[in-house]
Amino acid sequence: MTDRLAPTYRLAPIDTSTFADERAAAGTGVDGGGDFTVIGSVVQRSDARGHVTGRTEFFEDVAPARLAHLKMHRSDRHHARILDVDLSEALAVPGVLRILTHADIPNNLYTPLKLIGVGPDDEPILAVDKVRYLGEPICAVVAETEAAALEGAARVRVAYEDLPPVFDVEEALKEGAPLVNEYHGQNHFIYEGHHCRRIRFGDVEAAFARADHVFEWRYQSAPIEQAPAETTGCVVVPQADGRLRIHSDTQACFFTLDNTALILETPFNKLRIVGGTVGGGFGGKVDVVVEPVACVAAMATDRPVKFVYDRAEEMQVSSPRAAERIYIKDAVMADGRIIGRKVTLYVDAGAYARHTPYGTTKAAAHLPGPYSIPNVWADCHCVFTNRTPSSAMRGFGVTIADFALESQMDRIARALDLDPLRLRLLNAYRDGDLKAHRKVAEGTALVEVIQKAAEMAGHELPEAYRRMSSTTREGL
Amino acid sequence: MALLRGRGYASVNYPTGMNLGGDPSQALIHATTTGTFVISLSSVDLGQGIKTIAAQCAAETLGLPIANVLVDTADTDTGPHCMGTFASRGTHRVGNAVIMAAAEARGVMLEVAAEELEVDAADLETDGTGFIRLKGAEEKRIHITDLALAAHFKHGRTISGRGIYLKEPSAPVPETGEMDPDSCQAHACTAAVVEVDDETGVVEVLELYNAYEIGRALNPAMATQQVEGGAWMGVSHALFETTEPYYPSREHGPRDFAGYLMPGPADIPVQHSLFLERPAGNGPYGAKGIGEMTANAPIPAIANAIFDACGVRLESMPFTPERVLRGLDALRLKVEEPC
Fold first, then answer.
1. Could you tell me where in chain A the CATH 3.30.365.10 domains are found?
2. DSSP character for B311?
3. What pLDDT digit, counting tens, does each position of B51-106 carry?
4. Which CATH class, in words, describes the domain spanning B25-165?
5. Could you tell me which chain A residue has the CA closest to the CA of B57?
6. Residues A274, A388, A218, CA angle at the centre, nearest 5°?
7. Which residues of A fall within a CB distance of 8 Å from B223?
8. pLDDT per residue over B198-249, tens digit each?
9. B256: which chain A residues are within 8 Å (Cβ-Cβ)?
């Protein structure tokens, strides 16, 4: 009898011949003798039925009585001094309960990595005397209804004195460029006394001098939105015992709890985060931007408060994937061996650091890509400009580098009239190779995925290249 | 005017876990009196399936059916610390923490079973259907429900365990960049087949051939969903997505999905995906983190395929019709103006 409700699954096949010995050695199951019983099997996703039938509860399904709504009044300038904030018209809007400004936030600083000892404290929760990007939050309007909160936010009047903005990463680093953020004192992050995160491995200039060919090209990306189905938000519910229960779609519950407590200057155990079921994140929900101000609003009004981004905020205010500019200069021998690679990377952090200093270091760790290149030099700059702060997004530090690195590989292959896959196989890193960050590579498999992709796509490789392996130096 | 077809390649690797480590996650597990094991976490399921993977790791380690495992997440009052769901770390960190917790609970489970069956715990095994039995004497066995009841009401034992996974934090050497950034590396290679309309500049991705080395496919259906979804995102990044289409200009930023395009059903290429497994020594049952990697190789593969199709080298993302047409115009000018 077949179960007509039994689900069927699309399954990508698993190649069991490659690394067969290592698979067998690692696949002995709990008692050491048999095969796995659950691992490697298709188990239906535990929340699938709830998601497709609409029964899964997300944070917005929490609807406590007397729920108030928070909407932000945001900067309409790229870079300006705030001369005056006039709340009188906004406060007169029926239903407006309270308007929060920077003076209401106990510790008016985002401190995303403070608990693990990483600064900087360069960003206010609500703007104080300056705005540094279009859309920067200035004051938070709390109202009986979402409509009243929106109306109130629209009626806040801010007088500005415009300052010259800077939008281009290389312009921002020039002498005399407008200073984006006084906290830093210059338009880039400082890495332990250095103006950028560096990789220095071998002698790249000597490699250029003895190379048969030198190739240098430039690559550029633009900011990309995480675009989750569910926008960033939270509902804060004051509890009878004085604690706050925060229903949130954060990607990291304790991270949100700890940082919110630091901003509220409350004991950590005053807060409780309830989450874990999220409609997509892709890195967009790790910046702790909605919970702190919603908590202040809930405490100020002693009412549950909801603060959720609308789609426009999600797209233009929520931190995107950073734009990157990458210059790659390669020293290449006539047979295709790359003997030197020099990379200059500019990551556009926008107006504040958020997680971009971390992402820039991650980018440095990724260079020079999955290849064994004996001489590598990289300068990875984390640059401040007058745009929405960038931050985490799926693969940040790596995704755009891969676009540049793999475009570069294709161009080298074409310039030398070499098969692009053979060029990669020739240079692919293998077990035992010392990477540019001086860690010995292990568990590598670039050679094998290239061979398999070639096979799948009907791209013929000569026998010598088909026999190459990540575990030997055959064919090199 | 013509539809020009081309093929491009890209190969990548991707690190598992937060860069430089220092990103712990914990798991606690306990048996209810009727033999259901509850895993307490504070980990977040973004839709990628960490709840299911945690349950699979626990069931495998305990040697019990997955129906005997519940996952309770995420409430900071009841769940132990998790750094968060990012950096391709969930399966690796949380999976390892769950395995450690379940292994401790399994030890207690076998000890209590040994007392109940009056045998040595070392001679016991689980059969995967809910029984703990004597090796070689299968009729001498006890079901987990009876065992859990006995543990609580008769022996006064908790069948429980604690787990944590931490890759110790490291710091880069500022002068050289020497560092220990990752726990392991996953790998991927993409061959993309595209068609470029040289009149409109529109690029259509027809097929993607993807080979992924992922350590171990803990759940082959969810792994398939993750790589196919990730490759889709790569196509989307390549052809459509940006909040600042004329970067570094701040003009013309989209504010909704009418202006911020992503591939719809008709834009999705045929995907041929294959998994390779080279188990990571430090991975849960060998698994590596693959969440982020899967979007990466398609982007340059598509850029390279566009060049193969029409000779336009796109150095800026995304590869919009406008950029393709400007590239084609520049090529024509080059032909007209011999140097």
1. 197-223+320-427, 233-316
2. S
3. 999 999 999 999 999 999 999 999 999 999 999 999 999 999 999 999 999 999 99
4. alpha beta
5. A39
6. 120
7. 12
8. 999 999 999 999 999 999 999 999 999 999 999 999 999 999 999 999 999 9
9. 311-312, 315
